[in-house]
Please model this.
Amino acid sequence: MLFSNLLLDIDAGTINWSRAQFALTAIYHWLFVPLTLGLAVIMGIIETKYYLSRDTFWRDAAKFWQKLFGVNFAMGVATGIILEFEFGTNWSNYSWFVGDIFGAPLAIEGIVAFFMESTFVAVMFFGWRKVSPGFHLASTWLTGLGATMSAWWILVANAWMQYPVGCEFNPDTMRNEMVDFLAVAFSPFAVGKFCHTVISAWIIGAVFVVGVCSWYLMKRREMRLATESLKIGAWVGLIASLGAAFTGHISGQQVAQVQPMKLAAMEALYNGGTEQGLTAIAWVNPFRQPDYETEEAPALKFDMPYALSVMATNDPKGYVPGINDILRGYTRPDGTAEPSVEQKMAMGRKAIASLAAYRQAKKDGSETRAASELAVLKDNIQYLGYGYIRDKAEVVPYVPINFWAFRLMVGLGCVFIAFFALMLILTYRIPYLSIIVRRLLATFGLLPETHADTSGVTGLPAWHYWLAIALIPLAYIASESGWLVAEFGRQPWTIQDMLPTWAAVSDLQSSSVMITFILFLLLFTTMLAVEISILLKQIAKGPEYEH
Amino acid sequence: MKKDGFWYRTFDLYYDGFRSMRLGRTLWAIILVKLFIMFAILKVFFFPNFLKEHAQGDEAGYVATELIERSE
Model:
């Protein structure tokens, strides 16, 4: 046999280290990307104010934020390429299997968005005295647009793994071939994911700007820059936080439709039904998978009545399946039946057997047999991945991570809405509202009535500045939690229902993957430390005013 | 070359921009070191193309064997 050296029982260590390495790389990569996307919006708004007013203060302010953007951009550039290295080495079966579905968006991302981004970045940094203010402003906005377009194509690729559309599996080439580019590029899952991800990145940009400004205000320096940038940051932050809540709702509905197991894991919903409440809080042990087969619901569960049904179906009486319903199979509200996992496993095995028989028939030159096996394969291809499942529990993602990461993301999202709203009410001294808020804060001892604020400029109490600085790491935690939900929630699938991790992974020694994991940990941690150090130095140095 | 021409102005933008960089020099140095580590060390020594090395030119056959036999 040609490939007689295959180790067909893949070491669990290889799968786990490969997953850990990919997660590590993606998490570190996502530390750089959202600040780029978020700062791009804020520096664009600030430069627009310069273009409209020709007040050189705004130009200097724009230059300052662009400098911090540049530091983050330089640190983050090319960190995503490592993910592609990992596809080729650690996930070779997956890479081959996804074929041009993945290749096309990534190629477009590389060619169009990256070149657009890098061209306009040069004009933005080098062109202040070389090009007209209008062209410079356009370049600044196009830098942000280029980065956002990059995110679009990456998220298209990610969305396809969660909801594979616009493709057809070719058993001769063993690849998924794109049959409808528009279906892939504008899949509702991709659109929803893009909107939610990019808008949440704007929150990080806003929190960063507000945090830096708060530090200046506490130090009583760069007062105008801090006050004006803080207001812009707070507006962007409030609009983005509300937008993230709205797009999150849309994403939740999409997950309910195409990845119901992820939703059940996020909610620790063991047994579903109609009129389901959204769990506000419950005790789910973070360190072990719950006994969902025998437990009715998590302990100490407190939920918001009907909210999960509304979130999933827009109907307070809507049906939401739980983990056990999905394992056993259930009837959807439209009367159609969702097969049980055991039925799907049978169909998956049939798909793999017919794939093997088809390839053998082609090798033997028997076209008739090949055609009949191909028909069986096509009938069952939807559940191909279930052919690798040996125990139905393998299709249940790790509930504690999904449950707690989801709550962390949503909880912090609510904190951001309240924080930015409070900041704007107090800063703009909005009639009536600011008086009510001030009295409320004073009642709880959070605002001294005689000495209302530290700076006298923003009307904000000192603790608000500290809170603004503390929110910077929390904004990253919220954003990374969102990715944890998205990626842990679809386990064990690298491609939903088609390819589990243990079929997708390369036949490597786990020790070699472990070594590269450690190398990446060191490399990325060093880069992060360097970035933070340069950023802090530049913030301490402050803006350079040209007179 | 005309000093008000498109190509000269583009060249001047980059030349003058790179020449007058301060913080940018540090950032470019970091980018170059990072790219060297990624492409000259990590890619070459730790991240070979697995299929190219193992499939002996028949990637589809290799992946088919893997995916069929891993289900057994």
